[in-house]
């Protein structure tokens, strides 16, 4: 975060900090990133339940799309409220609230016997997912020093894909439990929710928020562990100075010519992460594999393979994001994802499903996403906004992301029913091409830059 503008946390030197301080920073960042694990688990658990809830609730393709995507409306609402909640109650308390919402959602959905109740609990889980999607990266970015900020924020995406993989395993394990197996699939998310809540009890609030609330003494204790060779008094002074002109920013100001360019970039990058089709693959992978002639068990097993590849690829993003840079990874991802989607589309068009060809190209697609857009978009959004408008701007960008995710997830069953799977894949490939062109022209590299330097890339003068 910026140290010379309102609301921006101090920039600290990490290379020279003692080993114990590095451990502290890594551990608290890891705990905050577990918000992503619940994000991934809560959103992906639906994939294994689709055949069973479709039968139980007698869903057509339109109601199936709504049942799967309804969580994303909650995500959008959660994203809208997260900025206010994080500034009022703190990043840590906000994440605790998210953990409770995750648990309530899973248990409630598993116990539902009416579709409207099922939808209500999915919406409840979405509130937690949407809020965590903003607050977890915010917490990490405010704790992490510049040299490690990219990879530590990328741990959030790692937690998401681990959550997705755990959901796939859970679905596979509960698949053979009979007619109520889908209930156990949903209820199983209460376990990681409780773990997240307990771990949050052991982490501190961020120094930026503590100083914002006038709790200087508590902030100093945390800064001693993360500020390295920079004197704590200097670090505190820089943060306090950054709040001297920290007037509340309105929506109207956010859309002024000062902030609008960076806001638009954030919104577009967030939207492109979703409209390139990733969550159609994540949510509907078992359904797609069944179209190739596989049975339920084999479809779920191949889905687990996709989840595992997603985890491995995200490790690649953590290793590369601070070496290769944000822009190059984003561009590379758009190309590889687009090529993979075209290949899968042709496989379905010509009904060629031999030699695991569909699985191979879907794995390439997921690997490309995990190593690029999946992790890098969250890193990019966490660092491009000036912190005077950061909470509000990040809320709006995250809201755009969830609305795009909702649109893609809602329309996938309808598109495949009306257009066919091949044409649907080609549509997502076109979005990959559009994303490549936009990012080539508009995205600016932020690798290795302090948050002060990043801000100067997008905003010539703070008004």
* CATH-defined fold name: Growth Hormone, Chain: A
**What value does the average pLDDT take?**
82
Percent of residues in beta strands: under 5%
The appropriate CATH architecture is Up-down Bundle
Shape: globular
Q: Roughly what percent helix? A: over 70%
CATH superfamily: MFS general substrate transporter like domains
Helix/strand-derived category reads mainly alpha
Number of helices in the DSSP assignment: 21
How far from one another are the termini?
18 Å
Total domains, how many? 1
InterPro entries: MFS_dom (IPR020846), MFS_sugar_transport-like (IPR005828), MFS_Sugar_Transporter (IPR050820), MFS_trans_sf (IPR036259), Sugar/inositol_transpt (IPR003663), Sugar_transporter_CS (IPR005829), XylE-like (IPR047984)
Transmembrane segments: 24-46, 66-86, 93-111, 117-140, 152-170, 182-203, 258-284, 304-324, 329-350, 356-380, 392-415, 421-441
Family: Belongs to the major facilitator superfamily. Sugar transporter (TC 2.A.1.1) family.
Protein name: Sugar porter family MFS transporter
Quick structural summary:
The chain is 78% helix and 0% strand. The chain has 463 residues and is mostly helical.
How would you characterize this protein structure?
There is one protein chain. With 463 residues, this protein is an all-alpha fold. It has a single domain (19-458), classed as Growth Hormone, Chain: A. 78% of the residues lie in helices and 0% in strands. It has 21 helices and no strands. The protein has helices at 19-44, 46-56, 61-89, 91-111, 115-143, 146-174, 181-187, 190-200, 207-212, 216-226, 232-242, 251-254, 260-275, 278-291, 296-320, 326-349, 357-371, 373-384, 390-418, 421-442, 451-458. The longest helix is centred in the first third of the chain and has 29 residues, at 61-89. It is globular, with a radius of gyration of 22 Å. It is a multi-pass membrane protein. It is found in: Cell membrane.
């Amino acid at each position: 975060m910026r140290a010379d503008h309102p609301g921006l946390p101090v920039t600290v030197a990490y290379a020279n900090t003692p080993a114990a301080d590095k451990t502290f920073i890594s551990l608290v960042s890891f705990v905050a990133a577990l918000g992503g694990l619940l994000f991934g688990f809560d959103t992906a658990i639906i994939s294994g339940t689709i055949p069973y809830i479709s039968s139980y609730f007698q869903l057509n393709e339109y109601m199936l799309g709504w049942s799967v995507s309804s969580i994303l409306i909650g995500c959008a609402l959660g994203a809208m409220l997260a900025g206010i909640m994080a500034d009022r109650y703190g990043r840590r308390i906000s994440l605790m609230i998210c953990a409770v919402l995750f648990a309530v959602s899973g248990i409630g959905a598993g116990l539902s016997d009416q579709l409207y109740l099922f939808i209500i609990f999915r919406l409840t889980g979405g509130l937690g997912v949407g809020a965590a999607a903003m607050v977890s990266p915010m917490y990490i970015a405010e704790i992490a020093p510049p040299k490690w900020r990219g990879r530590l924020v990328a741990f959030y995406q790692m937690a998401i894909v681990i959550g997705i993989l755990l959901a796939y395993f859970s679905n596979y394990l509960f698949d053979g439990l009979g007619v109520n197996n889908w209930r156990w699939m949903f209820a199983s998310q209460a376990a990681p929710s409780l773990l997240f809540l307990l771990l949050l009890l052991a982490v501190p609030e961020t120094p930026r928020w503590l100083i914002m609330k006038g709790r200087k003494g508590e902030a100093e204790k945390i800064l001693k562990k993360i500020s390295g060779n920079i004197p704590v008094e200097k670090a505190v002074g820089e943060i306090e100075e950054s709040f001297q002109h920290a007037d509340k920013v309105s929506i109207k100001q956010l859309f002024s010519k000062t902030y609008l360019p960076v806001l638009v970039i954030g919104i577009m990058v967030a939207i492109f992460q979703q409209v390139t089709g990733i969550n159609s693959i994540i949510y509907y992978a078992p359904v797609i594999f069944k179209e190739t002639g596989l049975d339920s068990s084999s479809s779920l097993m191949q889905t687990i393979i996709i989840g595992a590849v997603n985890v491995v690829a995200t490790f690649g993003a953590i290793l590369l994001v601070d070496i290769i840079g944000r822009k190059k990874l984003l561009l590379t991802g758009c190309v590889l994802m687009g090529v993979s989607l075209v290949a899968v589309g042709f496989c379905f068009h010509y009904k060629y499903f031999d030699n695991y060809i569909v699985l191979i190209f879907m794995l390439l697609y997921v690997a490309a996403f995990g190593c690029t857009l999946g992790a890098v978009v969250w890193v990019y959004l966490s660092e491009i906004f000036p912190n005077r408008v950061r909470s509000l701007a990040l809320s709006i960008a995250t809201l755009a992301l969830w609305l795009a995710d909702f649109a893609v997830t809602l329309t996938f069953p309808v598109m495949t029913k009306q257009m066919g799977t091949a044409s649907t894949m080609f549509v997502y490939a076109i979005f990959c091409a559009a994303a490549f062109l936009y990012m080539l022209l508009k995205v600016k590299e932020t690798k290795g830059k302090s948050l002060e330097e990043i801000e100067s890339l997008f905003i010539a003068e703070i008004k």
